[in-house]
C-alpha cells in the first residue's frame, strides 16, 4: 500500500541511494542476489546469537537491496522480464528464510506458516490474474503488501530486542499473530479485487 501510494516519492530516493552500486557497475540481478545472500547470512547468524535487535537491524539494511535492484535497473537501463521474475522469486525466498529463522528461534512454527501462506497467496493472487487477463503491475494498493511486511518485521524484531527478556515470547507471539492476520486479510482483499476484475472482463464492455 505504501509503495503503491507514494511510489513517485520513493523511487527518486532509492535511485539516489543506488549511486554506489551504479558506480560499481553492479547489475540489477547481482543486487537482487546480494540482498538474498545478506538475508540468508543474517538469518544463519540469528540462529546462533538469537538477538532479535541485531537481526532486526540487519534485515533493515539487507532488505534495502529489494528496492535498490529496481533503481539500478532504471538508472542503467537494464530492465528485463527475466530480472523481474528473478526479483519476485527471490522476494518469496527472503520471506521464507526470515520467517523460518524467527519460527526456529522462538518456536512459533504454526504462526510463521500462516504468515508465509498469507504472503505467498497475496503474491499469487496477482500472478494468477495475469494468466487470465492483461493487467498492470501497479494499481494494487492492498493493506499489507511487501513493503509493509518488511517494515513490520524489522520493527517487531527491534521491539522484541528492547523489551525485558520475560516479555519477548509474548511480544513475538502476538506480533506474528497480527502479521498472520494481516497477510491473510490482504490475500483475501487482493483475491476479491482480482475476482471482481475478471468478472467484469467476462461480462464484456456492456456487462
Describe, in plain words, how this protein is organized in 3D:
There is one protein chain. With 207 residues, the chain is an all-alpha fold. The chain has 10 helices and no strands. It is globular and about 60 Å long. The model has no long low-confidence stretch (mean pLDDT 88).
Q: Give a short account of the largest sheet.
A: none
Mean pLDDT: 88
H/E element order = HHHHHHHHHH
- Per DSSP, what share of the residues sits in E-state strands of 2 or more residues? under 5%
Oligomer status: single chain
Specify the helix fraction band: over 70%
Structural class by sheet pairing and helices: mainly alpha
Radius of gyration: 18 Å
- Output the number of helix runs: 10
| Low-pLDDT stretches | none
> Shape, please?
globular
Number of strands: 0
Distance between the termini: 29 Å
Task: Summarize this structure as a short list of keywords or feature phrases.
mainly alpha; 10 helices; globular
Which secondary structure elements does this structure contain, and how are they paired or packed?
Blueprint: H1 2-5, H2 7-17, H3 19-23, H4 28-49, H5 52-62, H6 64-75, H7 81-106, H8 109-132, H9 146-162, H10 168-203
Helix pairs in contact: 2-6, 4-5, 4-6, 4-7, 5-9, 7-8, 8-10, 9-10
The gist of it:
The chain is mainly alpha-helical and 207 residues long. Helix content is 81%, strand content 0%. It is built from 10 helices and no strands.
